[in-house]
Amino acid sequence: MSSRLTGVGVGPGDPELVTVKGVNALRAAEVVVVPVMDTGERGRAEATVLHYVPAGKVVRVVFALNERTDRKRRETAWDAAGERVAGLLRERGSVAFATIGDPNVYSTFTYLAQTVGELVPGLVVETVPGITAMQDLAARSGAVLTEGTEPLTLVPVTAGSAVLKEALAGPGTVVAYKFGRRAGEVAEALRETGRLDDAVWGSALGLPEESVRSAAEMDGTPLPYLSTLIAPPRRADGRGGKL
User: Fold this and answer.
1) Cβ contacts of residue 103 below 8 Å, gap of 6+?
2) pTM over 0.85
3) What does the pLDDT average to over 19-27?
4) Which of 71, 92, 151, 226 has its CA 20 to 30 A from that of 213?
5) Helix (H) / strand (E) containing 228
């Protein structure tokens, strides 16, 4: 029988935003792996999972989640995590990996699946989609992501502010992830492209410390790392104007 690794998107933090299919996948797996940083604190994925499965079924695996400068350290952490999950698959047969948001959108699961696939012959890899932070922020703020023929561009600001500025110069909505530490640069890019007044940002969505605010309130102070920004285009053509 083939081993099965399932990446399960558990949403941006609110336990009520896990899909029925996601809950079923978590409960059906023999083991549920959750990623943690080497500091050991409980992350959003783990906190969400514990609403649906007993703690005894959850295995915490350390990842260098925020490591961007030391490639050797990052690669070593990925290799160790892959070995740990491969061992669990050999012992138990089916493992679910819980990831915030969606497992196919900027997720650690992508790298894990690649690593484990090289270690476990015949591995079956599946994913269960999850609600993303941009969808949750749109719902909580009232921002409309797309209308008619508008494109939607998703940018990780860790790629640099130039990438963000290029996207903001385009015709559609721009969503920025992981921009909190560069909030000042983001605010300036929004101002330069005339997008500041209509943009919104949010962090800790669905959690007690949730913050959803106008981007015009950003003063350059760093925000939480996992902050999300939505910058809609100008919509002055009335209902259906972008069709």
Assistant:
1) 7, 8, 9, 97, 109, 110, 127, 128, 129, 130
2) yes
3) 98
4) 151
5) strand 228-231
